[in-house]
């Protein structure tokens, strides 16, 4: 599966970033009961954190790109945790998407599609997942989007 994912990333013109180190007292991934629980991942594009508020200076399209960047970081964290073997991913179970939003912004689900569509592109049917998409007034470091995940491992 790792080769297929690498080919799909190349086809999409995307690359996995280096898995980010934690910036506080937590670990990026916890495995429990055959599930990986991933801490919230922030959007880095070209090594820079995407910051700002949707509906107040950050466009829907930029928000979707930020969500996609979070999705790429999720895959990078999983790949690192699994020693490079993404074939152990059985299912993307759930994404929790937090969108730094102006009070009048209501397109959080459209922003979240940036990550959701990436997961389906990379993992096929196993990438189809449950999801939450919530607007929040602020995120760590001023990030535009933060996404956490639950991923099922193959037996």
Q: Can you characterise this structure?
A:
Helix content is 32%, strand content 30%. The protein has a single domain (2-13, 35-153), classed as RutC-like (60s Ribosomal Protein L30, Chain: A, 2-Layer Sandwich), CATH 3.30.1330. The longest helix has 22 residues, at 60-81. With 155 residues, the protein is of the alpha/beta class.
Give the spatial strand order of the biggest sheet.
Answer: 1-2-9-7-8
From the spread of the alpha carbons, the general shape counts as: globular
Uncertain stretches of 5 or more adjacent residues: none
Helix and strand content put the structural class at alpha/beta
- Proper CATH architecture: 2-Layer Sandwich
Quickly count the helices.
3
What's the CATH topology name? 60s Ribosomal Protein L30, Chain: A
Strand content: 25-35%
Please outline the major beta sheet. Answer: 5 strands, mixed
* Straight-line N-to-C gap: 15 Å
């Amino acid at each position: 599966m790792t080769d297929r994912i690498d080919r799909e990333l190349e086809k999409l013109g995307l690359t996995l970033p280096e898995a980010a180190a934690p910036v506080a007292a937590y670990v990026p991934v916890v495995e429990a009961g055959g599930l990986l629980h991933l801490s919230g991942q922030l959007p880095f594009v070209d090594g820079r954190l995407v910051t700002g508020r949707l509906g107040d200076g950050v466009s829907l399209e930029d928000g979707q790109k930020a969500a996609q960047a979070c999705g790429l970081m999720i895959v990078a964290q999983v790949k690192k945790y699994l020693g490079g073997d993404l074939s152990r991913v059985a299912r993307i179970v759930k994404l929790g998407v937090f969108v730094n939003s102006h009070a009048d912004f209501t397109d959080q689900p459209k922003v979240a599609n940036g990550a959701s569509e990436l997961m389906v592109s990379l993992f096929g049917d196993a990438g189809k997942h449950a999801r939450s998409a919530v607007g929040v007034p602020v995120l760590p470091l001023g990030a535009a989007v933060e996404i956490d995940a639950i991923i099922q491992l193959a037996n």
